[in-house]
Amino acid sequence: SIYSGQKRAKDISAAAGEELSRRMSKELPAFLKSYKDAFEDFKEKSKKHRYYKPILIASINNCWNFRDYVEKNMAEKDDNKASILSTLSDIENSGFDVLLQQLFAQLKPSYKKFTENKWDSSNEIMNEIIKNTSKHISDFRTLKDPFYHAIIEKIHARLVKEYIVRLLKRKVSLKTPAQQQNLAQNISKNAADLEAFCTSNGSQATWLNSALPKLAEIIRLQDVGAIKIEVATLATKYPDIRKRHMEAFLYIKANLSRSELKSILGYLSDSRASTPPAAPLFSNINIS
What we know:
Layout: H1 2-12, H2 14-45, H3 52-73, H4 79-116, H5 122-137, H6 145-167, H7 177-200, H8 211-220, H9 224-237, H10 243-249, H11 258-265
């Protein structure tokens, strides 16, 4: 309707086309907020609708048409542009959250198995997680490319985050270097499998790929000086990591003395960064 209305106005005169564009830019924010309200209403009240998931996906895809129109036809200084793009982001993210709820709920028991089994069956558990995730991803193939990549990256970030959460649960304490070496190898293998799976399905969130290998290396290392270097490198890559995260993680390394632990934790800060990271990882993890 917007495109055809604009074309007809331009066919009358350039001035009519410009005037219609100006008026539409004023009306579009209110229309999209109404669209958002209707979307939220459908999302909450129509969960048993036969085509619930396809309609959610179609609504997210619709946002791309509006984005495309706004980017091409509205000036950066137009106050309405930011409002429109913000509303579109709200609709998209709200839709993503619903589409992912079922997957994340289904994966929760699988992640608990890591610590319940003392990480002994971690490869089998990771294969189970990947298999279940793969089934859900097939439903998202009808999303337009930008949205498909966005939802895959959300999945990638959640899979890495939940794995880290299990490492920070203080459920496993290993006293010997051999035990720690074995766990480090398991984590490295799980990390490689997870990265390969997410990348093959279109994730471009390469910033996530070093988190688990770095943690595995900290477990493997026995020299305190080398551990400090690895912790400092991890903190540079993920500036939202805090002492409480590392302290919970180092519970795994039961052969560290209290003074060594304090020395290692000295490389991290509990203060908030002046600017939060563009893509947070550890700040989304609460330590109980």
